[in-house]
Amino acid sequence: MSVESGFKTFRGSDGLWENFPVQQVASHEGWEADPELVNNFYNGLRKKLYQAQPNEGHKLIASLQDKYDVNVITQNVDDLHERAGSKKVLHLHGELTKVCSSRDPYNPQYIKTLTEDNCEVAPNEKAGDGSLLRPFIVFFNESVPEISSAMTIVPQADVFVIVGTSLVVYPAAGLVRLTRKDIPVYLIDPEDVSGVNIPNLTHIKKGASEGMAELIRLIEQ
Length: 221
Prior knowledge:
The protein is of the alpha/beta class. The protein has a single domain, classed as 3-Layer(aba) Sandwich (Rossmann fold), CATH 3.40.50.1220. 27% of the residues lie in helices and 17% in strands. The protein has seven helices and ten strands. It has helices spanning 22-25, 28-33, 35-51, 56-63, 80-84, 147-153, 208-219, and strands at residues 16-17, 20-21, 72-74, 89-91, 94-101, 112-113, 133-137, 160-163, 185-188, 201-204. The strands form four sheets. A three-stranded antiparallel β-sheet has the order 6-5-7, covered by helices on one side. The protein has a three-stranded parallel β-sheet with strand order 8-9-10, covered by helices on one side. Strand 3 (72-74), helix 5 (80-84) and strand 4 (89-91) form a beta-alpha-beta unit. The protein starts with 15 loop residues before the first strand and ends with a helix.
C-alpha cells in the first residue's frame, strides 16, 4: 500500500527491508541480539515516515468513507492511512510512531507516541517499567494481538478488498477466509499471486493508486 509513498514492502523477494536483513531488524531474535541496532533502524525509518506523504491509493480509500462504512485493516506500520483521512484503521503489526516497554509491550501505561521533532530512541533509553524502550512493532515470531479484533470485523464486510499483499504472511493472510461466501473480493496487486483460491475474486493487476481508481469504477457501475 505504501510503496508509492517511498516505503519498501515488509517482506520483499530479496529478504531485505529498507536494505537490512528482515530477520535482523524485524524479529524477536534480532531485537534480543542487538536492541541498539534495531532501535537505530526504526529511528531512521521514523524520520523517513515523517517526510513521506500519503499516495493517491491512501486518499482514494479514505474517500470511500463519504459513501460507505470503511474499516482499514493494515499490516503496514506507517500512519499514512490516518494522514490521508481514514477514520477506522486497525494496525495488525504495530505502529512505527510509537514505542513501548520491551518487557510488557501492550501495556498502555508504557506506550508512547513519538513526534516529528522527538522521534528517536536513545541508546539504553528505558520505558516506565525500567525495561528498554523498543519499537511498538510486532516482530516475527511474536503474537498478533489485534488479529482477534480483525476477526470480528471481516465477517461483517459486504465487500472485501486486499491491496498489495503476498497473502503468505499469517495470520493476516487467513482473514479473507472469514468473509461471507456471497460477497465480492477484490485483490489489487500488479504481480501474480500464486496459490490463491478465493471464491468471487477479481484480481486488479495494478499498483495501489491505479488499482483503487479501477476498484471505485467497478463498484460504482
